Amino acid sequence: MTEAPPKSHGRLSIQASARPRDLIEDNPRLLGAWEARVITLFPEAFPGTLGLSLTGKALQDGLWRLGTIDLRQFGEGRHRNVDDTPSGGGPGMVLRADVMGRAIAAAMEGVPEDRARWPLVFLSPRGRPFDQATARRFAACDGLTLIAGRFEGLDQRVIDHFGIEEISLGDFVMTGGEIAAEAVLDATVRLRPGVLGNAASAEEESFSDGLLEHPQYTRPAIWQGREIPPVLTSGDHGAVARWRRDQAEALTRARRPDLWEAARKDEE
Fold first, then answer.
1. Architecture of domain 21-189
2. What is the pLDDT of residues 58-99, one digit of tens each?
3. Can you give the pTM of this predicted structure?
4. CATH number for the 204-267 domain, one of 1.10.3720.10, 3.30.300.130, 1.10.1270.20, 3.90.660.20?
5. Where are the alpha helices (DSSP H) in 96-177?
6. Coil, helix or strand at residue 194
7. Mind listing the pLDDT tens digit for each residue in 186-230?
8. Running DSSP on this structure, what letter comes out for residue 15?
9. Could you tell me the end-to-end alpha-carbon distance of the chain, in angstroms, rounded to an integer?
């Protein structure tokens, strides 16, 4: 009688590594390509939507690189614990300083020490709001390391020790920082040379000049009785430019008075 194969028969053996894991390993590695590294408890969440459309094509073409650092492998004890109860009491759990410290050391290995060239960012609801100017700043760097938070947050000593920059997507709380990290990377990568293809697309978008974008139209010329504004089909490029500017200003005044006031101050 043939013995049954062991339960492990045919299964892959996986060994933890402190090195960032490249998510598309067969892509070309272009010299000087912009690189993102994400410290996360859920590396399987990446590349997610970043692997689609223009950012996905750019990733496959080697215009940028993406790697994940699995926080769990730096955990304590047999169960690889990464969190503990808050000092002073209270609900929830806090990411441990020693665990995150080891993960950051691994994530920042081989990158420039100058944070202006390679920022280290923690996605946190208490952080400074992420905006288009920040995306442009990140896109001009050599790379970016993001920490996708979980639970009640991260031990403050880690933030202070590493001089971590805190960034928020807005005044709301999410379960974790993975979706926020993808949003930051999407907004940043699309500004890198060659990703959009048409550089003018990025120049005319919302927030590029401090204003919301003007309304957009395309075919058919009439839909449900609604026409495309005649100025857009007039062939008068000067009139089109003026119309778009007027529309952008009107929308910004109505929907984002904060942006409108900031734009006016910049012009003064």
1. 3-Layer(aba) Sandwich (3.40)
2. 999 999 999 999 999 999 999 999 999 999 999 999 999 999
3. 0.86
4. 1.10.1270.20
5. 97-107, 132-139, 156-162
6. coil
7. 999 999 999 998 764 666 666 768 899 999 999 999 999 999 999
8. -
9. 90
